[in-house]
Amino acid sequence: MAIRSLLTSVLFIILAGGAAMAEQVVLSVQSVTVPPYEAAVSGFKAVSQFETKRIVLSEMGGMDVNKKIKQIRPRLILALGMDALSTVKVIRNVPVFYLMVLNPTSVLQGQNNISGISMIIPAERQLKLFSAVLPDLRKVGCIFDPEDSGNFVKKAREAAAKMGIEFFATEVLSAKDISPSIEDMAGKIDAFWMLPDRSVIKQEAIEFLVLFSIETKIPIITFSEKYVEMGALMSISTDPSLLGCQAGRMTNAILGGTDPLQTKPIDPIDVSVSINMKIVKKLNVTVDEKAIQKAKVID
Questions:
Q1: Residue of 276, 281, 268 whose CA lies nearest to 242
Q2: pLDDT given at position 171
Q3: Residues paired with residue 53 on neighbouring β-strands, in sequence order
Q4: 25-30 and 114-116 strand pairing
Q5: CA distance 199 to 103
Q6: Maximum CA pair distance of the chain?
Q7: What is d(CA 134, CA 161) in angstroms, rounded to the nearest whole number?
Q8: Which of 159, 188, 262, 291 could disulfide-link to 133, CB 3.0 to 4.6 Å?
Q9: Residue 63: how many CB atoms within 10 A of its CB?
Q10: 151 and 108 in one domain?
């Protein structure tokens, strides 16, 4: 009887624990329904141990979002994109984990319940991948706005020095400085590094940069596949689905009590490399064959 009673108690504890786990909810908040966010949520759900509910801000119809969140009582909020993070940052009693936010520090003010995965791949890692694809790479140049990319450029300069790569970085403080700053790099660099910086991602700057690349045969290396489709030679970027998987594993650990919430942005683990083979041929650039086999090739 004692053994049967003990087994019954153990079974009750196991079932009760499972029920408690099933009742724990992660709430996904996103501004709109777009493919990158959907891919991130799918990746998250694939590895998350918790039920996931969702709020799409554009579908709320004027409803009080924070009131709705309080009604759901989530264990954790997954904020997808800047608009979602800006909306939920006022919540202090629930952990918030963000994804797909380019510059989270611009809206955060030292909240200790908010963490997330950065979309910015560390400079040293990018330079190593660039060098693996472009074996003749010795000199790299970029333009940047100090407010947007000053800290990243500092780290890039340090990483380049360690790798024996010459690094040319020009500060751009107004739109009129963009074209002359790019033109000044002709003959000085082997590749132009296009950063996610407001000085470069304007349409007119991109068009000028692509023409500069074709005329000088200096390839553009960048942060998004869409610019590879527009004429850059290669990109190193984060993959929404893989970011979602990483977030799922991390939130499992946070809610499971095995890993504390980190307030500093966390580096992405997995990255995607894309190469435009038409541009490779047009610019007559030497590209490592093994790197091509591992990359997503755009013809």
A1: 268
A2: 94
A3: 27
A4: unpaired
A5: 15
A6: 88
A7: 17
A8: 291
A9: 10
A10: no
Helix, strand, or coil (residue 3): helix
The Cα 224–Cα 238 span in angstroms is 8
Q: What is the mean pLDDT of residues 144-167?
A: 94
- Of 90, 159, 96, the residue nearest 125 (C-alpha): 159
Residue 103: inside a domain = yes
Same domain, 134 and 193: yes
Q: Are residues 81 and 110 in the same domain?
A: yes
Q: In sequence order, what are the residues at sequence separation of 6 or more whose Cβ sits closer than 8 angstroms to the Cβ of residue 242?
A: 43, 268, 269, 270, 272
Tokens of 122: 């560390």
State pLDDT tens for residues 219-244. 999 999 999 999 999 999 999 999 99
pLDDT per residue as tens digits for the range 160-183: 999 999 999 999 988 888 999 999
Residues 6+ apart with CB under 8 A from 156: 123, 126, 127, 142, 167, 169, 193
pLDDT at 23: 53
Using DSSP bridges, classify how beta strands 220-222 and 234-237 pair: parallel, antiparallel or unpaired: parallel
Residue 238 has which token pair? 């984060």
Position 285 pLDDT exceeds 90:
yes
Report residue 107 as tokens: 């809206």
Tell whether 266 is covered by a domain: no
Helix (H) or strand (E) holding 156: helix 146-163
The secondary structure of 228-297, three-state, reads HHHCCCEEEECCHHHHHHHHHHHHHHHHHCCCCCCCCCECCCCCEEEEEHHHHHHHCCCCCHHHHHHCEE
Same domain for 103 and 191: no
Strand order in the sheet with 220-222: 166-171, 139-144, 191-193, 220-222, 234-237, 272-276, 296-298
Residue type, position 3, single letter: I
Q: What is the CATH number of the domain that holds 10?
A: 3.40.50.2300
